[in-house]
Amino acid sequence: MSSTTVPQLIILGALVGGCRAAAPHTEAGHGAGHGEGHGVGHGAHGADHFADPSRFVADWNSPERDAYQKPEEIVAALGLTAGQTVVDLGAGTGYLLPPLVKAVGPDGVVIATDIEQAMLTFLDEAKAKEGWTTVRTHLSPMDRLGLPDTSVDAVVTLNVWHHIEGRGAYAATVLQTLKPGGVFVIVDFLKEETEGFGPPLSMRLSAEEVVADLVAGGFEAEVVPETMPRHYVVRGRRPR
Ligand SMILES: C[S@@+](CC[C@H](N)C(=O)[O-])C[C@H]1O[C@@H](n2cnc3c(N)ncnc32)[C@H](O)[C@@H]1O
């Protein structure tokens, strides 16, 4: 794994200023902890905390989420083109799948991964219902995607990275899965109070820490400007 280089730090320094601070934001109809299943998914990780999609789907797939989650900005950060293969790491109940399916088109592939088989079973049912013929589901181990090397164009993960342990090593496995030039986009909560939304502060990662995780895994990494009130976007690129 490589260490942080001076050019990478310069990029980080230049771009981190584009990461917005939290702005006042309220949503009627969303319970405290929206977007994460808080009080449920945090604490000890990996042991069935997200095993029941029915507890989360109304919250995670709420159309009102788009107002602050800005899925169009997440997809734009990926720079997808028709026919590409993209992975949604920790897809949960599939909030991101519709815009990903649209972005890669009928000749593309969207691989929805999760460590919880129940989430993937839920997604298989959603696939059939929604007619998502280009979506595949994949059960990942905790510490890697478990997909073939150099097999995908892009990986995105939303509200998941803070759950992953050994992040630098995990990032290195994502790097191996990507084709040269492929991108890994990480979207997660700001490391500050976000009006009752998001994980406990003790679990949060700053955008700079996520950049460091990606650099440790061999990526060139930067913070991407966005307009989300509670999140940041970090993008890594596998060097060609
Ligand atoms: C907070 S939910 C986010 C779901 C979805 N990305 C969203 O934003 O609506 C976290 C999801 O990540 C999954 N997860 C946690 N650790 C993971 C890991 N190491 N690899 C893959 N998925 C993981 C959980 O099972 C859960 O479905």
Explain what the structure shows.
By secondary structure, the chain is an alpha/beta fold. It has a single domain, classed as 3-Layer(aba) Sandwich (Rossmann fold), CATH 3.40.50.150. About 30% of the residues lie in helices and about 20% in strands. It has helices spanning about 5-15, 55-60, 65-70, 70-80, 95-105, 115-130, 165-175, 205-215, and strands at about 85-90, 110-115, 135-140, 150-160, 180-190, 220-225, 230-235. A seven-stranded mixed β-sheet has the order 3-2-1-4-5-7-6, sandwiched between helices. It is globular. The model is unreliable at about 1-35 and about 45 (pLDDT under 50). The protein binds S-adenosylmethionine. The site of S-adenosylmethionine (SAM) has 22 residues, from strand 2. S-adenosylmethionine (SAM) binds near residues 50, 91, 92, 95 and 158.
Features:
240 residues, 20% strand, 8 helices, binds S-adenosylmethionine, 7-stranded mixed beta sheet, Rossmann fold, alpha/beta
Give the overall shape, derived from the CA principal axes. Answer: globular
| Unreliable segments of 5+ consecutive residues | 1-34, 43-47
Strand order of the largest sheet: 3-2-1-4-5-7-6
CATH topology: Rossmann fold
